[in-house]
Design a protein that fits this description.
Distance between the termini: 60 Å
Largest sheet: none
Structural class: mainly alpha
Shape: globular
Order of helices and strands: HHHHHHHHHHH
Number of domains: 1
Number of helices: 11
Length: 229
């Protein structure tokens, strides 16, 4: 009986290690593809253009983006394809569905990680920041903040046991705002508007992120004042 228990525990440990190895391989592959220029936004846009007229292609973009976010790849590169090929409202829907689906998958993976498996993620400086700022408004801010890695939010929220409702709500808000701004700017660039991406995305997103963080800080201060009184 004791021998069988040890064997079962050994198999479970091997299975966990295999899952972690596959996840690490997927992440490293994503970074390698991105560094090689294969996951380059404009390049993907050119390749996707030939399939845009098919009804099923938006579903493919949603699925691909969800998969990429789930395994910590830079799924935001698919904003280019969605924004260039479809009107901003439709493109935003594609971005939100793919981003939220991938985020929830990554969140679920992180919730099932063991303590040792969490260590590599927890060493990230971004994770340390997330650990201090995991409230609803702060998560909205991080989602909208340009260049803050979604993988840290998705996996970090799962590791930190952020309430699912808080995670889902902030994810939907963040992807909707960021998705619409990027889709509109990329559509403008496709129509020949130079400088649209920086002007219509980076500054508004940074400003909105600051507003979310300011709101969270005021809420915390108000809470501290109430406790003090």
């Amino acid at each position: 009986m004791e021998k069988r228990t040890r064997q079962n525990n050994t198999r479970k440990r091997r299975k966990r290690k295999l899952k972690l190895a596959l996840l690490a391989l997927a992440i490293l592959t994503g970074f390698a593809l991105f560094a090689a220029g294969i996951l380059d936004g404009p390049a993907l846009m050119d390749k996707a253009n030939r399939f845009a007229q098919y009804w099923w292609f938006p579903l493919v973009l949603v699925a691909l983006q969800g998969l990429m976010f789930a395994v910590a790849w830079p799924g935001s590169v698919l904003y280019w394809a969605a924004g260039a090929l479809y009107e901003p409202i439709a493109a935003t829907g594609i971005i939100v569905l793919g981003g939220a689906g991938g985020a929830l998958t990554a969140y679920a993976i992180a919730r099932n990680m063991k303590q040792g498996e969490e260590h590599a993620i927890a060493k990230s400086k971004h994770f340390a920041f997330l650990e201090r700022h995991a409230g609803f408004a702060e998560l909205c801010a991080l989602r909208t903040l340009p260049n803050f890695p979604h993988a840290v939010i998705n996996y970090g929220a799962g590791i930190l046991n952020v309430p699912l409702t808080t995670f889902i709500a902030s994810t939907l808000i963040g992807f909707t705002v960021k998705g619409f701004l990027y889709a509109t700017a990329i559509r403008g660039m496709a129509n020949g508007e130079t400088g649209a991406l920086a002007r219509q995305t980076m500054l508004p997103l940074a400003a909105l992120a600051l507003l979310f963080m300011a709101g969270a800080a005021l809420r915390k201060k108000d809470g501290d004042d109430n406790v003090a009184t």
